[in-house]
Specification:
Elements (H helix, E strand, L loop, with lengths): L5 H9 L37 E8 L7 E10 L5 E9 L7 E11 L2 E4 L11 E2 L3 H4 L8 H5 L11 E9 L12 E11 L2 E12 L1
Antiparallel strand pairs: 1-9, 2-3, 3-7, 4-5, 4-6, 4-8, 8-9
Length: 205
């Protein structure tokens, strides 16, 4: 579900509990509370869906980046799933590997604190090839992507995709740990070349 900027758009509400996309975990010298167990920051709680109540996004790359997010609107259905309308594109054809570097910061006592990578999927993690996620599907499982002819598998042709529709919002037992104001910076690259960078400031409840 996470190619191009689509990865960024729904990370907050989807990637949190996906077991099929694993990251490379390295010791992070920038983590401000070194020595404390990571579990102190990602505690299990009631299984529920996270809800997005506020979002502001910006391009943290260049205006001529190959991967582009043109527009984005997200709201929730009465059952808590995701209704998304977005326009994304790439001026280059993408082939595996497509790397995602994700930095997640949680606002704590007025300051945004970088979260570590937890269980290879939560927090600030690096995913060496998001194309691997799509390899498990012969048919894209999400109807809005199929309708937009947005592929769930690499390679991805260059072009612009307008996507609109409803996506499932999975439940997670770490919802309480991720409630609050977060800043997410997602950097995508392919073949060692920069693709795009977008930053999202969001509020989750």
């Amino acid at each position: 579900m996470w190619y191009l900027n689509f990865i960024i758009l729904f990370y907050v509400l989807v990637i949190l509990i996906q077991p099929s996309l694993q990251s490379n975990v390295t010791d992070d010298d920038t983590f401000p509370f070194r020595g404390l167990p990571v579990e102190q920051f990602f505690k299990e709680g009631p299984v529920r869906k996270l809800q997005l109540t506020n979002m502001v996004w910006e391009n943290c790359g260049r205006s001529n980046d190959p991967g582009r997010l043109y527009s984005l609107k997200i709201h929730h259905t009465p059952l808590g799933d995701i209704n998304g309308v977005f326009k994304v594109g790439s001026v280059v054809k993408l082939i595996s590997p497509v790397k995602l570097n994700l930095e997640v910061r949680l606002k704590t006592f007025g300051t945004y604190v970088k979260l570590p990578c937890f269980k290879n999927i939560l927090g600030s993690c690096t995913f060496p090839d998001v194309c691997k996620w799509g390899e498990q599907f012969q048919v894209c499982p999400f109807k809005p992507l199929r309708d937009a002819k947005f592929p769930c598998r690499c390679p991805i042709r260059k072009g612009i995709f307008q996507v609109s529709g409803e996506f499932p919002n999975p439940t997670t037992k770490y919802a309480n740990s991720l409630t609050g104001d977060l800043s997410l910076t997602a950097r995508l690259s392919y073949g060692g070349k920069h693709l795009s960078c977008y930053r999202f400031n969001v509020t989750l409840v």
